[in-house]
């Protein structure tokens, strides 16, 4: 774990622990809940393989597909004001993320990677770190590749990466946050908590990472009033520690379970 990652994690904890305390959705949920240590291991160690993988995937993609976009387009794109670039990036990246995320739910082999994230049974900001590196590299890679191909500036992409990360942690946080009618436009904790619900009506819903209206457009929105799910998680037999969770998707199906349905997400 590098020093920068440790500082980021410490600052993140100093921001989210008080927020979760003040606006708790489940006040009885403890900070040191079950699986706390495992999720802490993710927060500390998972960043390294993800960063390595993302750099590899994006380098490969830009080297092999860079010719698709004329240089003049890249110049025009990167000369736009940064706020406009970031706004466009959020839209482009989240449309790609939406479909990549849907694919991870629909394709059984991909689901085995994504199931690790859906094995979270007590949601909070720390649990949001529990993502299989392959899952994160492919979904994030897919949404970042078009940004590099189109020529968005490093500053705009960096700012977007920060916003995306902060938003993702908030979506998993143990908070009740009423954003009124905006909840049909922007992904809220309630929106993403339903994505993690262990309830049939909520399976395969709310795929967007930031823009909830993408789910409205494609008919996959599930936001019943102010209600929140009773329980989270899946039935798939996900092991309980980091190393075994990393290995889980590669272990032959018969050795871990019978036949998990992809609709169990
Ligand atoms: Zn999912
Ligand atoms: Zn999630």
Description of the structure:
By secondary structure, this protein is an all-alpha fold. The chain has one domain. Helix content is 57%, strand content 0%. The chain has helices at 3-22, 36-45, 47-65, 71-78, 82-106, 108-118, 133-150, 154-172, 189-195, 213-217, 242-247, 253-256. α5 (82-106) crosses α6 and α5 packs antiparallel against α7. The chain is globular and about 55 Å long. Residues 258-265 have low confidence and may be disordered. The structure holds zinc ion (2 copies). Residues 101, 105, 114, 118, 195, 265 line the site of one zinc ion (ZN).
Topology:
Blueprint lengths: L2 H20 L13 H10 L1 H19 L5 H8 L3 H25 L1 H11 L14 H18 L3 H19 L16 H7 L17 H5 L24 H6 L5 H4 L9
The site of one zinc ion has 4 residues, from loops.
EC number: 1.-.-.-
Main location: membrane
Subcellular location: Membrane
